Amino acid sequence: MGLPRQILGWYVEKILAKMKEAPDIWNDNSQPEAHSTEPQDKVSPASSHYSRHKRTHMGKKPFACPDCDYKTAVSSDLSRHKRTHKGEKPFACPDCDYKTAVSKDLSRHKRTHTGEKPYTCDKCDYRTGHASALSRHKRIHTGEKPYACPYCDYRTGDTSSLSRHKRLHVGEKPYTCSLSTP
Description:
- It contains six helices and eight strands; from the N terminus they run ααββαββαββαββα.
- It has helices spanning 5-21, 47-58, 75-86, 103-114, 131-142, 159-170, and strands spanning 63-64, 71-72, 91-92, 99-100, 119-120, 127-128, 147-148, 155-156.
- It comes from Cordylochernes scorpioides.
């Protein structure tokens, strides 16, 4: 069963528009069997996915923002980026006033209302609604401390701890009490 003619026409128009935006990336006919990517040995079911993925390894970023110096290998990333210049936030939470330019951010935000915590640690019973929080948590088990202080030997597993620590060196005190006298 094929796509309805209207959808197929729309899809072809989108592809042709992308080809006009960056014609040099569409001329590469070298595609391994099953569209496997040599560096990571992943397989893509569609040649367009393979081409997009391949651009990340080749460093090609043919999609450029006309308003700033942002460039990307993925046209949908450019579309999302352009919303920042326009202030567009088309994705709105049905439960509160939260709005965002990125659909993934809305999905993550909705978990604050539902309490859903799909990311679980395989070493303990920690659960979270954010993949980045799980990555940060796992460093507790591994002992990894990728963030280093430029002023001393201090290392930590999260950027907020590093920011707080660096204030000790520079004397920054960003939080002041409005009730205390100066």
